[in-house]
Write a structure and sequence with these properties.
Structural class: mainly alpha
Oligomer: single chain
Order of helices and strands: HHHHH
Radius of gyration: 39 Å
CATH class of the largest domain: Mainly Alpha
Shape: rod-shaped
Number of helices: 5
């Protein structure tokens, strides 16, 4: 790098310090990337005017680095968006599963299938419903009749 090129480099570094602080506080990553691009443009211009190939190649490297940081920022933003979308989708599925469990439990308790989430739905059809009703009402018979009915059911 020529003496003039080193002077431009030093000058840009001095300007960059307060500008970087302001960019970090006011605009975040996007502002810092814009500052890096401006720095690269000034270095490229100075390199062309001074005929300093090192300053020009430094400008090209800095521009490429700014492009990569911008790409990384864009990918991070997209990844956050996708992750948030996934979290929302998972929450909707959990809510839907809770609602389905609550509906099943409610249906089971209305059918007299028992209390709570552990209740199994009654699947005995019309005959099973008649038997269940007769068992709940006692069938007007004693314990022996109930045992006989159970024995008949096991044979069937």
């Amino acid at each position: 790098m020529s003496v003039l090129g080193m002077a431009v480099d030093t000058y840009l570094k001095m300007l960059r310090a307060p500008a970087r602080l302001a960019a970090g506080r006011l605009g975040g990553d996007a502002a810092e990337i814009a500052l890096d691009r401006a720095d690269a443009r000034l270095r490229n211009l100075a390199g062309a005017l001074l005929g300093d190939d090192e300053l020009t190649s430094d400008a090209i490297r800095r521009r490429a680095a700014a492009d990569e940081r911008e790409r990384a920022l864009r990918l991070d933003t997209e990844a956050e968006r996708v992750a948030e979308s996934g979290r929302q989708r998972a929450e909707r599925r959990r809510d839907s599963a809770r609602e389905q469990r609550a509906r099943r439990t409610e249906r089971a308790s209305r059918r007299g299938g028992g209390e709570g989430e552990g209740a199994q739905p009654h699947r005995g059809g019309a005959r099973g419903q008649e038997r269940g009703r007769a068992a709940r009402q006692g069938g007007g018979q004693g314990e022996g009749a109930a045992q006989a009915r159970r024995a008949d059911l096991t044979r069937a």
